Amino acid sequence: MGKTESRQNQELSELSSLDAVVIGAGVAGLYQLHLLRGQGLNVKLFDTASGVGGTWYWNRYPGAKFDSEAYIYQYLFDEKLYKDWSWSERFPGQPEIERWMNYVADRLDLRKDIYFNTTIASSHWNVTSNRWTLTTTNGEKIDAQFVVSCTGMLSAPLEEPFPGIKNFNGRVFHTARWPKEEIDFSDKRVGVVGNGATGIQVIQTIASSCKSLNVFIRTPQYTNAMNNPSYGPKEQEWYKSRYKEFQNNLPNTFSGFEWEWRDGDWSDNTPEERLAVLERIYENGSLELWLASFKELFFDQKINDEVSEFVRGKMRERLKDPELCDLLIPEHYGFGLHRVPLESGYLEVFHLPHVHAVSVKENPIASVTETGVRLQDGTDYELDVIILATGFDAGTGALTRIDIRGRDGQSLKEEWQKDIRTMMGLQVHGYPNLFTTGAPLAPSAALCNMTTCLQQQAEWINDCISYVSNEGKNVIEPSRTAQDEWVAHHDAMTNETLVAKTNSWYMGGNVEGKPRRLLSYIGGVGNYRDKCLEVAASGYKGFEVR
């Protein structure tokens, strides 16, 4: 145990009363700590990890990298902080991202108020004191007026998705809990379960170094080839010169990215013009094809079908083999209605003789044996390593894994097992003074350049807490009526889209028994921001302040 950790553990046992607790040292948590500290509050941050970074601490699997451009996945509240860091490429990898997160923590002098290696096990509201009592897994008690959850939207991994996995004689890795040491696959028979955005990054990175690689595929994915140039001084000067543009523009776009729907409606373009737009954006090699080509792909089945076929055509050109096309190209859902991964040579790895795609749609994985994976029909795949890219209990899981109890002892986990409801993804009725970032029913749950949305939420929460204090009040929570109205609005926006008809983790479909509701607000980042600002300007209409 290092001196800092020892000192902090000693101090933790002595904590009695805080103004605020922040849970999670990722993008949102670091900024939230900085903001709350700036208004003079006694605030501490707690994280299970041994260092800062959040998702960029835990997700250190081979090939992990941004799929937002580095120059917009940034804090935009401090120009010098922004410009004093230089990125080496458009979509850098995890080691560089983690270094950046540490740079931010050091520049803002945040570590002195962070408790690492500390897991919050429970948070219970005390109706007498109007305060939260938090308990760590080691039994320490922490008392706070406000709790801000910055636990992340994708931070509760599904680590044991198959029976028998603990009996496997080889090594099992979940991508979201990857060890810090380098893993050598050169003489290993490897199986990867899952081919979403994370699985794709792993597969394309390790394929060439494995003795053999079996990829177990349930749902084929549309992919877009990543265009990832290196950045030198010229490119770094170019994006840094756009700081003010990004600061003004990003919070007001549909997706929190730099682009918007710039080519007009589908009907404004001839078939030739539409194809030219799709070709241009596809070659850009970013998420623009998904989030800023033609907005009608989210609403109109015929238009979605055309865009989907365009992407399928691009994938067929690269795969060539009809059997691989059948295994790897989606046919049963449309482009953009699930998460769209970027990739670098992912499709081509299946041409390697030692790499095999195994469809488990009709013949699912039944169990893990001592020697490998067994399918429902009894087929066995002998493996030395199993890599689980099996995803997360998205949006809700990080909060429901903490025993959070509000007024009258009500359990957030039990409530969300029945119905997932929030007020703008910022608070939940019945849980006073509990604020959330990256929670359900806000764009930050999935459909956003995360730093754009998380900064906006952290700033709104900071202003809200300041308002409560300045009004001489102690408690704020949304009314049931206001929350119901937000949920109804959220659902109405969702039901206008084709996304509502799909079955993906966006709709909670990857977790058995999870209530079906689109986790992310789909009405647009700029629109959501305006609604949040309207609430604040009205004196927090819809919230009960007392």
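[next item in queue]
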Amino acid sequence: MMPHSQLHGRLSRARMLRLLGGGVLGAPSLLAACTSPAPSAPTLVAPPARTPPAPTSVATPVAAQAASGTTIGGVRLPTYIPAKGPKPDLPSTGPGVDDAYLSFPKASLYKSVQQPPGKASEVSVLTLSYYPPFTALEDNPALQQINRELNVTLKLNMVAPTDYLTRFNTTIAGGSGNLPDLMMLPVIPNAAEFLQSQCADLTQYLSGDAVKDYPNLANLPTLSWKSTVYNGAIMGVPPPRSAPSSVLYVNKTRYDQEIGSSLPKNSDDWKRILVQLTNPQAGHWGIAAGGAGFGFGVGAAWYPGMFGAPNTWQLEAGGKLTHARETDQFKAAVGYVRDLFAAGVYHPNSGNYGALAIKDDHVAGKFAFAESTWTATYPDFWHRGAALNPPVQMRIMQPFTHDGAGKVAYYLSPAVQIGYPLLGITVMKKAPPDRIKELLGVLDFLAAPFGSQEALLIDYGVEGPDYAFDQRGNPVPTQRGPADSTYIEWNLVMQHLPVLYDSAYPEFASTAQSDEQMLLSNSIQNPTLGYYSATNIKQGATLDQAFNDGVTDVVTGRRPLGDFDQIVKDWLANGGEQIRAEYQQSMAATG
């Protein structure tokens, strides 16, 4: 059981996108393997050989991305003002690298919100929930205390992901009188019209130094705000996510036993290792792909990055955009994964794996590798592996290039959305200025930094009924604690900046931070982040599904590799060219 802060972001963005319609490189079924199980409520215990063309772009380091200005879409983004909270044991070493805590900063807890932001009103919220039902307000000491400190009564409507889009569309169809105050925005065809007609423009309250009225929101990094900009306005508030996106997880225990300490140096070496790890008679394979298994991994990050394809789109000189799918590097990745599939290194459940089953089998050693998301999955794997007897180490594989030269251009997470503008941000209905300020105050409270009294309350509940401090000062949930606190999906409304911390495994924080530093040392972002394409909003998921199905057919041998070019042409003709044109127009309009 890992509360909010230990999951450092908890919700996997790929999980949301698979259910709501988008993904990295447009893959709606990116990685079902990233789903975390609904946590059980624990008792209170002590924490136990190809040569493709050269890459068409040069990766931009994270630091350069962060320093690239504060204006996008014609809007000055909120000023970044770091919070003055407890000093981390391992401070961030650069943009995108999370602060790490080896133990909970109990002695340094501070109050980040001095006055209740509410006016004794009701605040209605509509968002997703991936967890079992939380304890009702009348029996929930944590929710009662949050309401008292906010001076509002929160009316939380948290809907299962399979029902959320239907519930959201039904809600907005009822008109402005039925809209909740705060809403998690999913992919909807009429997003532009909905935002303009029903949602509050937050620019005057948050742009530039105006955000200083909300210090915890000012603590959110600039990158997080880029996804909130639409049509020259800030239209929402972004729950922040960690910078790493998709990573390749390795069952290190099995790898060390069968391969040793040597790491793959290039694509030929990688194929050799996967073949060596594959023994169907023993029930062992080299790798697995989860969910619908789009391209058996070629649509995520590992293989396109290996061959030097850009992160979704590449901005050429003169302002032209080229999609990764159009590049020779992406095609080379498709051909390479086709060879791997033919070599029999994929677990036979690949493409049909359930979200939990793939994690269970990965930790059990039925395959050595599987790609999944950074957020939530990494600490979950630590706990899963440590719970076995004997324990199993689950770690991250260091990326490498197809020819062993240079560094992999690692794909950054867009911090809020992947593939679709505005997805996952919290928007609010139109309201008078005083009401908007009150609601922003509520979100500011929910964004209270790790190490604050507010974050402790949000993450763990009330001391006594929901958690107790162990002898090292770490909060440990009681039997009822998760249902009072963790099961409330605060992070899909607003959450604090992600940190690396796990009370059960202090070494997790230092290991994860080293992994972040390694991944982000040569990272690139999707250049369309913060810009708008109406066609991508309305047709992107459908277009992507057709493309994904075609590429999966190529990888699995149902269609020849030569068909890939036609699959790309079909995607361009059916809407891809229009998406490109709209992004280019959006970029040109704002310089």
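[queue empty]
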